[in-house]
Amino acid sequence: xxxxxxxxxxxxxxxxxxxxxxxxxxxxxxxxxxxxxxxxxxxxxxxxxxxxxxxxxxxxxxxxxx
Length: 66
Prior knowledge:
Elements: H1 3-40, H2 48-65
C-alpha cells in the first residue's frame, strides 16, 4: 500500500475511535450513576451487595479500558 493510503486508514481509524469512545464512556458513566442508589438502599433484604458489585465492576472495567 502507498503511504497516502496508510495515512488515510490511520486518520479514519483514530477519528472513529474518538467518536465511538465518547458514546461508550457516557454509557458507562450513566450506568454507574444509575446503579448508585442500590448501594445506599436501606431496609430488610436491601440489594447493597448487588449495587456495589455493579458499580465497582463497571468502574474498574472503565479504568482498565481507558
